[in-house]
Amino acid sequence: MIETDIVIIGGGSGGFGAAIRAARADPNARILLLDSMAQLGGTSTVGGVNVWQAGISGPGVHYELYARLAPNAIGIGKIVHLYSKEEPYGFSRIDPNSSYESTLRTAGLAKLDVRRVHFEPDAMAAAMHAMLREAGVEIRYRTRFTDVSVQGRRLVSITVEPLDGGAPYTVRSKLFIDCSGGCHLARAAECSMAFGEEPHDLYGEPSAPDSASPIVNGISQVFRVKPAAEAGVDELPAAACAPEIQDWLATHTPAAHITEYPNGDLCVNVLPTMEGAEFHSMPYPEAQAIAQARMHAHWRRMQTDYGFDRYRFKSMFPLVGIRESHRLVGRYVLREQDVRAGLLCQPQRQEIIALADHALDTHGERTVRGGKLKHLEQPYGIPYNCLLPAEYDNLIAGSRGASFSHIAASSCRLSRTMMALGEAAGEASALALRDGTNYADVDVDAIRERIGIPAFEEKALSVWGIQA
Ligand SMILES: Cc1cc2nc3c(=O)[nH]c(=O)nc-3n(C[C@H](O)[C@H](O)[C@H](O)COP(=O)(O)OP(=O)(O)OC[C@H]3O[C@@H](n4cnc5c(N)ncnc54)[C@H](O)[C@@H]3O)c2cc1C
């Protein structure tokens, strides 16, 4: 058994943000971060989602990561090909003339004016590792959380399993931060959770369907291709030739999002590779195998029909890109009305700890009302209470499974926003540890001040030309 002050489950964007903030805020705190993967970054590195989509998030640590990776392992992407029915892919190449600041906005911009950040996943994971080690965080890779022990309103300990051998052991901690993507710790502790679309009557969301459904945002199996000297195609693996895979290809035209790596390779993110509900209805290895076979089949089509015959397949990313799964139903649930109201008009404005402005974007299957859920006109914020479960005093969530409705999650799930959520969870943890208080009693103004949210909000409003 080991004892610590703060344990963080998951080292993706949210977990990294939580760890770096908590460690810098309290250098004496014992902080342990666990991840079942072999590197940090989660979906954004092991899952291959090497793009920080355009958008506002917060004044935080993303600036520092950018500075560490520039100029060779990171670049600013500009759209060079827009999706069309005939050529169903978007293509973003690195543009040396665009600034990092230009990537911090998406609402209200024309598509061709949007800028995003493309990075080398391994370099990002290495930078995150170096920063956490410099800050004194203990990291245990290939270590999976499996169980939790609770007493009344407090989590007491978790059981973890080293995946490369060795016996499971117990980690006792004062505070617990759940950054596992699908909120696995909160689920294991039997917190109230949601999965799929909420019915309209639950939160009164204008676009919500009449009844609940298990539909969640689609998944993507991301892969990497490299330039080739001559035109040609890759050999199809046997799995991709199977009739059911070829049938899928014949009946589907998924959209590919292609982004250039700094070295000229391309990242291919086809959405959806599989509908979210279908993916979650089967065991992970089985669903992953189907997704990978579909990707090989679809890549062949891109080579033969869309002109990518001067590229060859290089690698498939080991983690399937899961956009959405279980979500916490916390002290406050962010909903469509908050997203559409915007920063100045949404309730709980004084408690905002992260910002977002990405379109409401439920890829793939959906039953939401009306047409496509459109781009937003202005940014909105995520209140602190979206991180807090109602059931426990020493548990906080800091990743895509925090307390958002299905519709709201489709907007706020971007990597830099998840990092900002994690940062708030990390600052809250340092304050709770210092004062010996529960998460719900932490002064939200203090979290906001430490992160720099009030000044950043002012900047955001002036960039958007919004009068207070
Ligand atoms: C295909 C796809 C495309 C996307 N495109 C973009 C984009 O272009 N731009 C953008 O900004 N965002 C994009 N997103 C959204 C964004 O990438 C994710 O929402 C974000 O990375 C999630 O970060 P997170 O920290 O919440 O979770 P994750 O990054 O998933 O991190 C969760 C971590 O928890 C670990 N974990 C889980 N369970 C356990 C356990 N039991 N024990 C130990 N560790 C565990 C996992 O290994 C993982 O490292 C995309 C997402 C997907 C899937």
Summarize the structure.
The protein folds into two domains: 2-75 and 119-197 and 325-464, FAD/NAD(P)-binding domain, CATH 3.50.50; 223-316, no CATH class.
How would you explain this protein's 3D organization?
The chain is α/β, with parallel strands linked by helices and 468 residues long. The chain has two domains: 2-75 and 119-197 and 325-464, FAD/NAD(P)-binding domain (3-Layer(bba) Sandwich), CATH 3.50.50; 223-316, no CATH class. Helices cover 30% and strands 22% of the residues. The chain has 14 helices and 19 strands. The protein has an eight-stranded mixed β-sheet. Strands 1, 2, 7, 8, 9, 10 and 19 form a seven-stranded mixed β-sheet that branches. A hairpin with a 5-residue loop joins strand 13 and strand 14. Helix 1 runs parallel beside helix 3, helix 1 packs parallel to helix 12 (415-435) and helix 7 (243-251) crosses helix 9. The chain is globular and about 65 Å long. The model has no long low-confidence stretch (mean pLDDT 95). The site of flavin-adenine dinucleotide (FAD) has 38 residues, from helix 1, strand 3, strand 8 and helix 12. Flavin-adenine dinucleotide binds next to helix 1, strand 3, strand 8 and helix 12.
